[in-house]
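Cont'd.
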Amino acid sequence: MSVDNKLNPLDEALRILWIESIPNSNEETSSRELRLILSDNDGPDMDAQKQLELINRLFETVKSVSLGELIDNALATKNISSVELADESGLDVSSVEELKEDSIYPNNIPVILLQKLLEKLNISFDTVEKAIWKTYEMLRKKYFIEPGPGYVFARKGRNEIREGLINKKTTGRELYENKDALEKYLSKLKDLMEENK
Amino acid sequence: MDYKELLDLISKKDKSGLEALYSFYGQKFYAYAVKKWLFNEDEAWEVVYQTLDTLILKLPEYTFESQSHFDNLIFKIFINFLRQSFRKKRKKQLDIVYVDEFERLDNSSFEISNEESGTSKKIQFNRQSFDEFYSNEKLENPKLLFLKDALQEMNAEERDILLLRAQNYSYEEISKMLKIENNQLKVKHFRLKKRLTEIINNKIA
């Protein structure tokens, strides 16, 4: 494949087959393939400026907090329990727990109830907006790959996430578990929070 | 630095953990995407960024039992993004010319109509065979499934030679990886492809 637009059809078929089958391979095969990639020391280096940009963007992700972390931290600071928060905001306890675990798309929660919850915790819209986007990204990427053997879910309840999030069958959730729907939800949340200032 | 130290730094929001993550994995993934999959710099950058960003977002979900478990996760994330980008790239490349060395043994530029070549050495793959892969998530083309079966009729070393060469590893690199003689490897590779083609054609016939 010396010229990018000239392909040997059998090699192309083999490439496709390899890249399709390798994600489902066992750990031994994956390790071997990874070792091959990591052992190559003659590859081209990324431009220094692009490297810096990459690290900085990753750092933004690391620094940002998710909605779950934000709620968790606020509960700890205010010394409030999930039960109390649920009671005062009109949500059920399981929903509060799901929000804390980042296991639910925030726009599953009626916007008026989320606004009440945020009000109780004194969380501003600007702060929660960033956190909600982080949670959205986390959930969007959650099922990007199938967890293989050897992984253990870190938090209790992680493996009890509702079927709808795992199975992308026709639950109807895809209608609002997307970027456009979340943007609309956030716009509504912003209006409500400004009205109640 | 092992994965535990690396994860510890990242959990403490220490930038040096990200630099180490890039240095151990990102840099190599970038080189692999550029060298072996012929991605341009921007495409390779995006694959590496998406891989590492996804890994960071997924870390709270996992505890790892060993270095190899951690490696397995990052490798699978990388391959998934590589696959997505490869598919996207190919879908946009409408000017691909399929060149078959069995039609011209000097391997010169020669466009063939594979389905119509009518020879016993004909290659059955063409753009149509790959379009389903470029456009869909699933590997459903029966010809690719024939290829999968045909590969199983070869031994592990033969499969490795074919799959590594398809990923643009040089003969020298393949000989080192598989600890086999480089001498005659090119000829061996050519013969393996010919044999593989014949197996597929026999299956299709």
